[in-house]
C-alpha cells in the first residue's frame, strides 16, 4: 500500500490505528492538508480533527499550534507534484484532498476550484476532482419501495442491525403518522434509525428527526472526523457523530445504486 493510501485508510476508517512510522512524503502531504484547511480563511474543528489523525504525536492544542505555524508557509503545488511522480500517488493525493474539502458533507464552488487547480498542478484531467468528490459526497433523491426493500435484504450490517419492530424510544412518533414503517436500526440495543417507505428517521446529533427521501440533497459516503455521516437537504444539515453508525451511509449507497446489490 502506498503512503497516500495509508492516510486515506486512516481517515476513512475511524477505528484504524495511527501511523507510527515516518515517510519521506509525509511533510508534503501534511502541508497540502494545512493549505486546504485554510483555503476558505477559516480553520474549523473538524479540519483540525482530520489533520490530528495524521499527526498522532500531537495533542489537540499541539495540532492547532502546528497548523497555525505551517499556515505561514506558502503552498507550492509544483513541489508537491515533484514529490508525487507516480500517477497512482497523484490520484491518491486528489482523493486525500477531497476528504478535507468535503469534511462538512458538501463542497462549494470555490472549493471545487481549489481542487481543479490542484488537479492541473498534478497533471490530471479536468474530471479528476469530480470523480474524487463522488467518492465522498453523493446525491440523494426519491427512491422506490422495491429498491429500499432490496437494499435492506442485501445490506451487510457492520455495527448496527435491523429489526422489524417499530421504534418505541426517542424515534417513536418522529415520522409522519401516515408513514409506512419498514425497519428499525439498532446499535447495542439502542434505536438509532428507522426506515420508512417515505423516508428516514434517525437519532441525529441535533436530536431525533425525519427526512423524506426526495428531500435528501447530498449525503457522505465515508466518515469524516466529527461525524460518521452527514445528510443535507435544501435547508438542513444533519449529522450522526458515532462512527459505528456509518452503516446508514453504506445503506444509502445501496438504496441509490452506488453499490451494486448482489442480486442486481
Task: Outline the structure in words.
The radius of gyration is 20 Å and the shape is elongated. Helices cover about 40% and strands about 15% of the residues. The relative contact order is 0.13. The strands form 2 sheets. The protein has a 5-stranded antiparallel sheet, with no helix packed on it. A 4-stranded antiparallel sheet has the order 1-7-8-9. It is an alpha+beta fold and about 260 residues long. Helix 2 runs antiparallel to helix 3, helix 3 packs across helix 4 and helix 9 crosses helix 10. The longest helix has 15 residues. The chain has 10 helices and 9 strands.
Tell me about the largest β-sheet: 5 strands, antiparallel
**Major sheet: order of its strands?**
2-3-4-5-6
- SSE string, helices as H and strands as E: HHHHHHHHEHEEEEEEEEH
Low-confidence stretches at least 5 residues in length (pLDDT < 50)? none
Give the structural class: alpha+beta
Please give a quick description of this structure:
With 264 residues, the chain is of the alpha+beta class. It has ten helices and nine strands. Helix 2 (26-37) packs antiparallel against helix 3.
Amino acid at each position: 500500500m502506498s503512503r497516500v493510501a495509508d492516510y486515506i485508510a486512516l481517515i476513512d476508517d475511524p477505528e484504524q490505528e495511527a501511523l507510527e512510522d515516518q515517510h519521506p512524503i509525509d511533510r508534503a502531504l501534511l502541508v497540502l492538508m494545512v493549505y486546504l484547511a485554510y483555503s476558505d480563511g477559516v480553520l474549523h474543528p473538524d479540519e483540525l480533527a482530520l489533520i490530528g489523525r495524521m499527526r498522532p504525536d500531537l495533542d489537540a492544542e499541539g495540532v492547532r499550534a502546528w497548523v497555525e505555524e505551517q499556515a505561514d508557509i506558502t503552498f507550492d503545488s509544483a513541489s508537491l507534484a515533484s514529490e508525487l511522480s507516480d500517477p497512482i500517488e497523484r490520484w491518491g493525493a486528489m482523493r486525500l484532498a477531497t476528504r478535507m474539502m468535503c469534511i462538512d458533507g458538501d463542497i462549494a464552488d470555490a472549493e471545487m476550484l481549489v481542487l481543479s487547480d490542484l488537479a492541473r498542478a498534478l497533471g490530471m484531467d479536468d474530471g479528476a476532482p469530480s470523480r474524487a468528490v463522488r467518492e465522498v459526497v453523493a446525491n440523494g433523491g426519491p427512491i422506490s419501495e422495491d429498491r429500499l426493500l432490496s437494499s435492506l435484504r442485501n445490506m451487510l450490517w457492520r455495527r448496527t442491525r435491523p429489526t422489524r419492530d417499530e421504534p418505541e424510544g426517542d424515534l417513536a412518533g418522529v415520522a409522519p403518522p401516515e408513514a409506512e414503517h419498514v425497519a428499525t436500526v439498532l446499535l447495542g440495543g439502542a434505536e438509532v434509525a428507522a426506515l420508512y417507505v417515505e423516508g428516514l428517521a434517525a437519532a441525529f446529533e441535533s436530536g431525533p428527526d425525519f427526512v423524506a427521501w426526495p428531500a435528501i440533497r447530498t449525503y457522505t459516503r465515508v466518515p469524516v472526523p466529527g461525524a460518521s455521516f452527514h445528510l443535507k437537504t435544501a435547508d438542513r444539515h444533519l449529522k450522526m457523530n458515532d462512527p459505528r453508525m456509518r452503516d446508514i451511509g453504506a445503506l444509502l449507497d445501496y438504496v441509490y445504486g452506488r453499490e451494486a446489490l448482489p442480486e442486481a
